[in-house]
Write a structure and sequence with these properties.
223 residues; alpha/beta; Rossmann fold; seven-stranded mixed β-sheet; 7 strands; 41% helix; 20% strand; transferase; SAM_O-MeTrfase
Length: 223
């Protein structure tokens, strides 16, 4: 039974899948090492999830990608690698030090020309993108308290068919506990309620067990 699987087992499976399907990658490994050296929290996506983002971007034929939450650029590397030569990732990062580190990581990976990092609070930066070409894929991985607002902007800045991915929706199981009033949990639930009720979206969500623990992500399409 799944309930009998202990953490050592699923971590072993994750390590096996990562080694088999992702493998060693000097640019990604260097990005993670730089993040650790800079003291950034280990909250970048797990390797298997990074490749998931990469494949979704390729499958969707994305040419313009919006990322909300850059951190050290790990997921931006995965997304940028999925783009055609004239494609673009616009990634929003609130912390200038993180943005500087991400730019260095992207340049080291040879992808600096495909990624623009816009510095500032996402809710201040997102309105400045109005009027630009619509995004084909939006990846939301920032403060969970603002997920509902980020989803609203994803719909505004996208088009019918835009893919939207929201990370960290499981919150270690807390998302399904109505008595949990932590701001990140409440914000996550509010985002999921937008996906369930807003007619601009068709969505589902999956639980995950990977190197980052027990969590999940939502996948939606703008309709």
């Amino acid at each position: 039974m799944a309930s009998d699987i202990d953490s050592a087992t699923w971590r072993r499976v994750d390590a096996y899948l990562s080694a088999l399907l992702v493998g060693e990658d000097p640019a990604l490994d260097a990005a993670v090492a730089a993040q650790r050296a800079a003291g950034l929290p280990a909250i970048e996506v797990a390797p298997v999830n990074g490749k998931f983002l990469h494949l979704i971007a390729r499958i969707s034929g994305a040419r313009r990608i919006l990322e909300i939450g850059t951190l050290g650029g790990y997921s931006a590397i995965w997304l940028a690698r999925a783009l055609p030569d004239d494609g673009l990732v616009i990634s929003i990062e609130a912390e200038p030090a993180n943005a500087r580190l991400a730019r260095a990581n992207l340049d080291r990976a040879g992808l600096g020309g495909r990624v623009q990092i816009r510095e500032g609070r996402a809710l201040d930066v997102l309105p400045t993108l109005s009027g630009e070409a619509p995004f084909d894929l939006v990846f939301i991985d920032a403060d969970k308290e603002s997920n509902a607002a980020y989803l609203d902007w994803a719909a505004r800045l996208g088009r019918p068919g835009t893919v939207v991915i929201v990370d960290n929706i499981g919150r270690g199981g807390a998302v399904a506990d109505p008595t949990n009033s932590r701001p990140d949990v409440v914000g996550t639930r509010q985002g999921l309620e937008v996906l369930a009720r807003d007619p601009r979206f068709e969505a589902t969500a999956l639980q995950t067990l990977d190197a980052k623990g027990y969590d999940g992500f939502a996948v939606a399409v703008v309709v």
